[in-house]
Amino acid sequence: MIDDSARSPDADVWFAMPPGFVPMPLQELTTAAHEPARTAGPLTSLGPVLRLARLLLEAGAVHCCLGLHADDQTDGGPLLSIFTLAWRATEWAPRSILAARAATAPEEAEHLEILDLPCGPAALVQTRVDVPSELGLDAPGGLLQVTARVPCLDGRRIAILSLATTAVEHARHYRDLLRGIAATVSFEDPLHHVSDVPDKE
């Protein structure tokens, strides 16, 4: 399934999400959170989600997906994760240099690696952060955050793809998951030859 945002004339990055992720309309959820009449009824139980949407927008996220997967290593319970896309402006430098800087910057990083993606060099960084108190989540192990920083073709922006989850014991699997997503990143429209009209028999 191709999301409508992939065909937007304003789109400047494309990537594919694996099964188990659904888009989360950040702007709409944040608007609903500020309109009590709209949050009544079906949205009443979505308080943490609405607060999360606000926090992500404030952090600069422009795209978000909610991930739900089964924990097949233990009791089969649900594993929740959040995927986000954000942009960061930077002074021009060769993309390989930007990727190397991204891989060496975080002092608190638990895992660092340079990726050689089809779209160019990138960095994969794993950190552990505190859960924002506004979310009210019980996460004594903190929040696992795996981030792929992919320099854009112009060397002046970096696409930041992040996966966050409280399932810190599955760090390796989430690194593999984000590594796979990053491998699909393209800064050139891969859909220009794809038609919305089905072929006639």
Descriptive key words:
201 residues, alpha+beta, 7-stranded antiparallel sheet, 5 helices, 23% helix, globular, disordered C terminus
Written description of the protein model:
- Helices cover 23% and strands 30% of the residues.
- It has 5 helices and 7 strands, in the order βαααββαββββα.
- α1 (26-33) crosses α3.
- The longest helix is centred in the first third of the chain and has 12 residues, at 47-58.
- It is globular.
Helix content: 10-25%
Number of helices: 5
Major beta sheet, specifics? Answer: 7 strands, antiparallel
Radius of gyration: 18 Å
In the predicted model, the low-confidence regions spanning at least 5 consecutive residues are 197-201
Mean pLDDT: 81
Counting helices, strands and paired strands, the structural category is: alpha+beta
**Separation of the first and last Cα atoms:** 21 Å
The total strand number stands at 7
- Shape from CA axes? globular
Strand order of the largest sheet: 1-2-3-7-6-5-4
Beta-strand fraction estimate? 25-35%
Question: What pattern of helices and strands is seen along the backbone?
Answer: EHHHEEHEEEEH
